[in-house]
Automatic annotation (TrEMBL):
PROSITE patterns: SOD_MN (PS00088)
Domain of life assignment: Bacteria
Residues annotated as domain Manganese/iron superoxide dismutase N-terminal: 46-124
Organism: Sphingobacterium spiritivorum ATCC 33861
Catalytic activity: 2 superoxide + 2 H(+) = H2O2 + O2
Keywords: Metal-binding, Oxidoreductase
Gene (name only): sodA
Protein name per Swiss-Prot or TrEMBL: Superoxide dismutase
Alphabetical list of SUPFAM superfamilies matching this protein: Fe,Mn superoxide dismutase (SOD), C-terminal domain, Fe,Mn superoxide dismutase (SOD), N-terminal domain
InterPro entries linked to this entry: Mn/Fe_SOD, Mn/Fe_SOD_BS, Mn/Fe_SOD_C, Mn/Fe_SOD_N, Mn/Fe_SOD_N_sf, SOD_C_sf
Ranges where the Manganese/iron superoxide dismutase C-terminal domain occurs: 134-236
General function of this protein: Destroys radicals which are normally produced within the cells and which are toxic to biological systems.
GO molecular-function terms, A-Z: metal ion binding; superoxide dismutase activity
EC number: 1.15.1.1
Length: 244
């Protein structure tokens, strides 16, 4: 019994550490896990704070495993290759993305893919019924969109209307919440993006994120995804967005 309790404590501690690191990565509040050191930036593959099957039935285990081990891993590896080849000298992901127009298409696509997926993993958790935000985030959503239901409707519409591969986003921009989309692996931090802001919530609508389970039924994937949103984490990003 003592060993079992010890294993549970270690597992919970590791989960908390992962969550704290993820928050630091995306808000820039501390030296994040995607930095290779104080003076040399590299992306690091973020650990998932849940198992592959833990998001079922909304996202199946096989999709999660392939998405994480193949697609995401490839973005991280290719981004770091481009960073090395192009002699990129930045200290955090935000600095790279906000000046991405200076670099190659390879770096733009793969740095975006690495960053976007790290955020995507962090704002998911096992299925919850009646899954809604609270606190200051809920109030900000009501102010910006009229109600949570209207926010969901607009965000879902953005996700469904994104042609081909891309992302739907909730961002903070100068204290205001906005919804928008970006193609491919672009994101609202990039200087080349027409839609800008500090990402709080991102939904991957590339087909590799859902096709094994939903085929071409993106609407079913998006509707199921709402039950997975980790609103506590989104609240953390919202609280720190003025520092983003």
């Amino acid at each position: 019994m003592e060993n079992k309790n010890r294993r549970t404590f270690i597992k919970n501690s590791l989960g908390l550490t992962t969550g704290l690191l993820m928050t630091q990565v995306l808000t820039g509040s501390a030296v994040p896990s995607i930095l290779g050191g104080a003076d040399k930036f590299r992306f690091a593959k973020a650990a998932l704070p849940y198992g592959y099957a833990d998001l079922e039935p909304a996202i199946d285990a096989q999709t999660m495993q392939i998405h994480y081990e193949r697609h995401y891993n490839n973005y991280v590896v290719a981004a770091n290759e481009a960073i090395e080849a192009e002699k990129v000298d930045v200290k955090q992901a935000q600095d790279l993305l906000r000046n991405i127009s200076k670099y190659s298409g390879k770096l733009r696509n793969n740095a975006g893919g690495a960053y976007n997926h790290e955020l995507f993993w962090s704002v998911l958790r096992p299925v919850r019924t009646d899954n809604k935000p609270g606190g200051s985030l809920a109030k900000a959503i009501d102010t910006a969109f009229g109600s949570f239901d209207k926010f969901k409707e607009e965000f879902t519409k953005t996700a469904l209307s994104q042609f081909g591969a891309g992302w739907a986003w909730l961002v903070a921009d100068q204290g205001k919440l906005k919804i928008g989309g970006t193609p491919n692996q672009d994101n609202p931090l990039m200087d080349i993006s027409a839609f800008k802001g500090v990402p709080l919530l991102g939904l991957d609508v590339w087909e590799h994120a859902y096709y094994l389970h939903y085929q071409n039924k993106r609407v079913e994937y998006v509707n199921s995804w709402w039950s997975l949103v980790n609103w506590d984490r989104v609240q953390q990003y919202f609280d720190k967005s003025d520092k983003g």
